[in-house]
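User: I've been trying to design a sequence by hand for this structure and keep getting stuck. Would you show me what you'd pick, starting by listing the structure so we're on the same page?

Assistant: Good idea, let's start from the same input. This is the structure you sent:
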């Protein structure tokens, strides 16, 4: 029969070989707990395996959040839901459940610059990752450049396949920058490739009526809209710019602070006594005092 020391060394070696760091770190603690609580071998093993699974899920979420390129500061808790229309809040809460990704449905968010479109989709994207779904966030201009470069290098099919590994693709700021016809052609290729195969979450400051300026051609525009709108949820953020509101509040705060400062200062008399004889000439200012002697140099 093997000695306890040998058993421990062999167990640690096996757990290391099997790449089970959480089990290796916690098996002794859980063994003592199981002994105290009278747990069966199966219960002890279950607790040990659950700890390993929990640690792996945590690390996977951290890795996927990093790989997603999502702006993590734009999270769901940081989202000011009071600014958003009640219908949009209801729709967004339903999207957090995430089943639309399995149904390959799209999410289209429209609104003026600063209305919170990017924050809303970033928050939803982070919750999707925490629920075990891979997400990629990319600015539309950068995505188009990547696709165009892949097409020139005859690697467009490979790039589209790589993007298909993400069940949810967030394309931010469609229509902010005017693109050439060739650039819009590769974007349309991506949308057509993901149709009913993967979800596209998209933000734009342009309504559908202005998309012909993006895709440069009526037929291409109609085809792109058709693929996006079919199986989609549309959120309209008809709210003022958050950045403009913050700037206005900051300006008002500075104005109030300035009024308080100026109101707290009392007028000070200049020159002679303001309560002196009526109409007399102002007293001459006192002669300037002689400058102090220079300090003596220390020895």
């Amino acid at each position: 029969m093997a000695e306890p020391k040998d058993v421990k060394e062999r167990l640690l070696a096996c757990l290391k070989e099997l790449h089970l760091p959480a089990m290796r770190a916690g098996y002794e603690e859980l063994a003592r707990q199981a002994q105290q609580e009278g747990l069966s071998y199966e219960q002890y093993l279950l607790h040990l395996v659950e700890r390993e699974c929990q640690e792996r899920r945590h690390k996977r979420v951290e890795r996927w959040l990093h790989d997603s390129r999502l702006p993590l500061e734009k999270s769901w808790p940081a989202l000011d839901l009071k600014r958003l229309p009640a219908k949009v809040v209801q729709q967004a809460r339903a999207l957090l459940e995430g089943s639309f990704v399995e149904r390959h449905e799209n999410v289209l968010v429209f609104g003026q610059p600063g209305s919170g479109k990017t924050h809303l989709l970033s928050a939803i994207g982070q919750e999707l990752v925490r629920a075990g779904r891979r997400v990629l966030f990319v600015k539309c201009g950068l995505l188009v450049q990547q696709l165009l470069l892949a097409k020139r290098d005859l690697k467009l099919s490979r790039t589209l396949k790589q993007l298909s590994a993400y069940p949810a693709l967030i394309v931010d700021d469609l229509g902010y920058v005017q693109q050439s016809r060739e650039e819009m052609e590769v974007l349309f290729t991506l949308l057509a490739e993901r149709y009913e195969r993967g979800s596209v979450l998209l933000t734009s400051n342009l309504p559908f009526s202005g998309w012909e300026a993006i895709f440069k051609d009526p037929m291409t525009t109609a085809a792109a809209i058709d693929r996006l709108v079919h199986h989609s949820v549309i959120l309209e953020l008809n709210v003022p710019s958050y950045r403009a509101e913050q700037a206005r509040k900051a300006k008002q705060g500075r104005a109030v602070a300035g009024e308080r400062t100026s109101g707290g200062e009392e007028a000070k008399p200049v020159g002679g006594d303001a309560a002196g004889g009526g109409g007399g000439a102002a007293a001459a200012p006192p002669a300037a005092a002689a400058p102090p002697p220079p300090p003596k140099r220390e020895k």
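That's my pick for every position. To get oriented when you compare it with your attempt: Residues 9-68 form one domain. Residues 270-292, 294-299 have pLDDT under 50 and may be disordered.
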